[in-house]
Amino acid sequence: MAMLMWKVKGAGQRIKRLLKEEQGIGVVEVILILVVLIGLVIIFKSQLTSLVNTIFEKITSESAGI
Questions:
Q1: Strand locations in the chain, DSSP E?
Q2: Is residue 19 pLDDT above 70, yes or no?
Q3: Using CA atoms, how far apart are residues 54 and 12, in angstroms rounded to an integer?
Q4: Which of 24, 39, 42, 44 has an alpha carbon within 20 to 30 A of 11's alpha carbon?
């Protein structure tokens, strides 16, 4: 039990240190994230389009009943 409490206390101190750090995300990291997101959208474009169309069809059909 004491070992568990020691680990929890250590984790709390590490979290506090991480929250106090004032380093922001660099430009390179933001660009890499955007490239990955754009790549995923391009790869799954047809699936995303189908999903959005299905959602809007369901919204339209259920809003007609109101």
A1: none
A2: no
A3: 45
A4: 24
Q: What is the DSSP code (8-state) at residue 23? A: -
Output the CA angle 15-17-19, nearest 5 degrees: 70
Tokens 């299905």 correspond to 54
Mean pLDDT of 1-15: 62
Residue scoring higher pLDDT (45 or 25): 45
Kind and range of the H or E run holding 49:
helix 45-64
Inform me whether the pLDDT recorded for 1 exceeds 60.
no
d(CA 17, CA 10): 11
Cα distance between residue 56 and residue 13, in whole Å: 47
Rounded to 10°, the helix 45-64/27-43 angle is 70
